[in-house]
Design brief:
By secondary structure, the protein is of the alpha+beta class. The chain has one domain (4-129). The protein has helices spanning 19-28, 63-77, 119-129; strands spanning 4-13, 42-46, 52-57, 82-91, 100-107, 112-118. A six-stranded antiparallel β-sheet has the order 2-3-1-4-5-6. A hairpin with a 4-residue loop joins strand 5 (100-107) and strand 6 (112-118). The chain is globular. The protein starts with a strand and ends with a helix.
Length: 131
């Protein structure tokens, strides 16, 4: 049996005074039924040097949920500028559908995705275009 993984590690610069509120938002998120919400990634506040939040998933991360969380933080703290991250899709066995990844860049002020790429989809589109 093969195990599939989605992994990422990225940061968001955020002033120290916002760290506590950001972690409260992360820890108190609920689904539509009021149950605790699982983002599929972890977050850690880092205060040495330039303060930031570190987001990481080492097994079953969900990139869309990280994007949603960053959007919440951007709106809550009126963040500006661009933010982005990349992720990898891997597999414990050599499966044809087991490898890929993606990346996105977001405008924090508008909470909109500027660019997004899915490597597996990109590859398929380019292979199909040659036929």
């Amino acid at each position: 049996m093969a195990n599939y993984y989605t992994e990422f590690s990225c940061t968001l610069e955020l002033p120290i005074e916002h760290h506590e509120r950001a972690l409260v938002i992360y820890n108190k998120s609920q689904d539509r039924e009021g149950e605790p919400f699982e983002y599929g990634f972890s977050v850690k506040a880092e205060t040495e040097g330039t303060p930031y939040l570190w987001f990481y998933a080492d097994e079953s991360g969900i990139p869309d949920l990280l994007i949603e969380y960053i959007s919440q933080l951007a709106k809550e703290f009126k963040l500006i500028g661009r933010w982005g991250f990349a992720w990898s899709n891997t597999c414990s066995k050599p499966r044809l559908d087991g490898f890929g990844g993606g990346a996105c860049v977001m405008n924090l002020k508008t909470q909109r995705i500027i660019k997004h790429i899915d490597c597996a989809g990109w590859l398929m589109n380019h292979l199909e275009a040659e036929r």
